[in-house]
Amino acid sequence: MIPPVPGAPAGVLSAVGATPLVELTKVFPGSRFRTFAKLEGHNPGGSIKDRSALGMLIDRIRDGQLVPGKSVVVESSSGNLAIGLAQVCRYFGIRLICVVDPRTNRQSIAVMRALGAEVEMVSTADPATGEYLPVRIRRVRELVATTPFAYCPDQYGNPLNALVHRQTMREIVEGLDGRLDYLICATSSCGTLRGCSEYARELGLPVRIIAVDAIGSVIFGATSGRRLIPGHGASVRPALFQPGLADEVVHVSDLDCLVGCRRLAGREAILAGGSSGAVISALDAIRDRITPGATCAVILPDRGERYLDTIYDDGWVEEHFGAVGHLWKEPEVEVGPC
Ligand SMILES: Cc1ncc(COP(=O)(O)O)c(C=O)c1O
């Protein structure tokens, strides 16, 4: 039997990270650059947030600050982080309360509950902004103040949520033997962007970092607006944000996400979530400015199964966007590598 590596996460948690990096050869027909996709949906909880959840909790569990049967983890999440936390907390027998809102999809809530999390839904949006995030954050503060031995990982301000993504970037860079010219990365808490950016800057890598945000998100100073698709974007600027993390920011609409997702599914047979569609559309938007011969990496943060009722449901699409199917019509049949 192979002996366990001392200090390494065990069981299902040992499957977090080291996700596949695959070349996309069909989604940008005729492009003069190469594109590789980091498939973060292959993490055991289904998203990149497994890395954040593990990174924010594991040392606290190891050093005894979080005690199974006594400590209570409380966090606000629109879905993926809560699932990652539920996975870590269930594995170690730690109680978890997730504060979610009506935009969190039903399947994600069912997964959290199946993994033993207690789910608390805020029902009304912030009257000043119409957003749920400030209400979720207020409720988390109340719970932390009133629950004995409560701990909030605070994904929006916890440096460990950024630190852990140095490893994400390292896997990408090493997977490409150091030949990376552009990284395209969706943002919400800024954990992924900051970790990847800091790793690249510290190693002096000549990679141009493109952050992808939602139209209606305030992270990069734009004004707040209504957004349909969860995952990327934020209605409050996260404490992890710092100026200069990205060389360029591309804002994408809900329709852009949808088109990116449907093209990924239709052309590459990759069923991915809304923010994956966002990064694909963002790269498409800047494709004429990509240096010919360059290598690009896109991070696809989660899988598409949690979006089957929305992005991949023709009725939902028609209701919200009208007849838009022509936007992802298949290109001429192209025989790809086997
Ligand atoms: C689907 C999805 N995409 C993108 C992001 C953004 O990642 P980060 O919080 O590291 O900025 C998240 C964060 O929850 C997410 O769930």
Automatic annotation (TrEMBL):
Subunit organization: Homodimer.
SUPFAM superfamilies named in the record: Tryptophan synthase beta subunit-like PLP-dependent enzymes
Keywords: Pyridoxal phosphate, Transferase
Pfam families, A to Z: PALP
Span of domain Tryptophan synthase beta chain-like PALP: 14-302
Pathway listed: Siderophore biosynthesis
PROSITE patterns from the UniProt entry: CYS_SYNTHASE (PS00901)
EC class name: transferase
Keyword NAD appears in the UniProt entry: no
Summary of the function given for this chain in its UniProt record: Catalyzes the synthesis of N-((2S)-2-amino-2-carboxyethyl)-L-glutamate (ACEGA) from O-phospho-L-serine and L-glutamate.
Protein name per its UniProtKB record: N-(2-amino-2-carboxyethyl)-L-glutamate synthase
GO biological process, alphabetically ordered: cysteine biosynthetic process from serine
Keyword Transferase: yes
This enzyme's EC code(s): 2.5.1.140
Essential cofactor(s): pyridoxal 5'-phosphate
Top-rank lineage group of the source organism: Bacteria
Gene3D superfamilies cross-referenced by the UniProt entry: 3.40.50.1100
Record GO terms (molecular function): transferase activity, transferring alkyl or aryl (other than methyl) groups
Organism: Kitasatospora viridis
Entry-linked NCBIfam families: PLP_SbnA_fam (TIGR03945)
Protein family: Belongs to the cysteine synthase/cystathionine beta-synthase family. SbnA subfamily.
Signal peptide extent: none
